[in-house]
Amino acid sequence: MLEMFLIIFFALGVFFFLASLMKPINNKNLAENELKLVECSVCHNDFDENILFFKNMGQFNHKFAFCENCMEELYLDYQNERIGRVGKRKILTENNL
């Protein structure tokens, strides 16, 4: 019976000694391949941070993220509104003459 405990104790000692010599797995290489998803501030869909446009705005310099589709939509809305304002200005100046 004593011999059995000595064998088990020796086996556990060897196991823990070998386990202490092992190096931990480097998770840095695994993390580089993972995508870091960021939510678009307009449509709230998740995108890889490398394809989003970031803009600091506001009093507290809050960082907003915009996807390509939302940027295009905002730009087109801005252009349409700007064209409308310029057209109204031309009509007002022509009527004043």
Q: Bin the strand percentage.
A: 15-25%
User: Largest beta sheet: what is the strand line-up?
Assistant: 1-2
Q: Work out the number of β strands.
A: 4
Number of helices: 3
What's the Cα radius of gyration?
A: 32 Å
Topology as H/E string? HHEEEEH
Q: What is the terminal-to-terminal distance?
A: 115 Å
Dominant shape: rod-shaped
Major β-sheet, in short? 2 strands, antiparallel
**Mean of the pLDDT scores?**
81
Which spans of ≥5 residues are poorly predicted at pLDDT below 50?
Answer: none
Alpha-beta content class = alpha+beta
Helix content: 55-70%
Summary, kept brief:
The chain has helices at about 1-20, 30, 70-95, and strands at about 35-40, 45-50, 55, 60-65.
Descriptive overview:
- There is one protein chain.
- Strand 1 and strand 2 form a beta hairpin.
- The protein has helices at 2-21, 28-32, 68-96; strands spanning 37-39, 46-48, 53-57, 62-66.
- A two-stranded antiparallel ribbon has the order 1-2. The chain has a two-stranded antiparallel sheet with strand order 3-4.
- The chain is rod-shaped and about 105 Å long.
- It is α+β, with helices and mostly antiparallel strands and 97 residues long.
- The mean pLDDT is 81.
